[in-house]
């Protein structure tokens, strides 16, 4: 019985945490970071102020959680970084996961919040980069380094290779959404964009590419 109650309490705590993060994201986007109070977030999440303050004592802590969970959702290192051995297969897996990640409405909202508040709150941009983009980018760089070491890729500058590969995907999936409210490419269009990014990267970095 105690174990069941403990599991029940953990589920309730997780549900409240998700409600808080969802409410905060909406409020930050619609009212701005500075214009949103923790009290208003608690109201929007339908939780008590004490519940909110227990999990997130400051807005900065809450925004940090939003960034971390946005980038780490379904992208643990073992998922985002395939084993070396098949460069095409690895790039394809990474490419589709990255497209899924940055194509979510929540990721678009996160970038919009950061861009809108950057002049007044540069620390939000630092959080987004240090806690979100950089760890993900580094995992892809390490994957390409492992393929280079295994002889499957000719990528001595894996940092540049990772930047080029992810950049091709983001340039189609994410960045148009920041300016075009009706940008909504189909699943097949996104698959094609990822496939083309893979082909371009293979043409440049595969160790068995034509001379």
Automatic annotation (TrEMBL):
Annotated PROSITE patterns: HTH_TETR_2
Protein origin, superkingdom: Bacteria
Coiled-coil stretches: none
Pfam families linked: TetR_C_7, TetR_N
Keywords: DNA-binding
Every HTH tetR-type domain range: 14-74
Residues in the DNA-binding region annotation: 37-56
SUPFAM superfamilies with a match to the protein in the record: Homeodomain-like (SSF46689), Tetracyclin repressor-like, C-terminal domain (SSF48498)
InterPro entries membership: Homeodomain-like_sf (IPR009057), HTH-type_TetR-like_transc_reg (IPR050109), HTH_TetR (IPR001647), Tet_transcr_reg_TetR-rel_C_sf (IPR036271), TetR_C_Proteobacteria (IPR039536)
PANTHER family in the cross-refs: HTH-TYPE TRANSCRIPTIONAL DUAL REGULATOR CECR, HTH-TYPE TRANSCRIPTIONAL REGULATOR RUTR
Name of the protein described by the UniProt record: TetR/AcrR family transcriptional regulator
Species, as recorded: Streptomyces pulveraceus
